[in-house]
Amino acid sequence: MLPDLPPLPALTGAEGELIDRYLEAVDLLGRINPARPGDTYRGLRAAQALVRKAAELRDALALMHQRGETELHGDTLARALRVLDGERRAARVALPPDGVG
Prior knowledge:
Blueprint lengths: L12 H20 L7 H27 L7 H10 L2 H6 L10
Helix pairs in contact: 1-2
C-alpha cells in the first residue's frame, strides 16, 4: 500500500506546467550527469531530449509572464516540488559523495 502523500498546493495551470517541465528537465540532467555511471548513448539521448524540455520550460515561464503571473511563489512551488519527489530527483544532478557512483 502506498503512503498517503500530502496534497499538492493550489497552483495555477501555468505554475503546474512550470513544475512539470522543470522536473522533466531535472530528470534528464540527472541522466546526463557525468559523475554517475551509465553509457554515453543514454546520456546522448537525454541531452537531445533536454533541448526540447528546455524549450517547453521556457514556454511555461513565458506563458506565466504573459498572463501577468510575474512572481514565482517560492514557498508554494517548493511544497509542490517536495510532494512530487523533487528533492530526490534533483539530487541526481549533484555530485555523488566520494566513493559512490
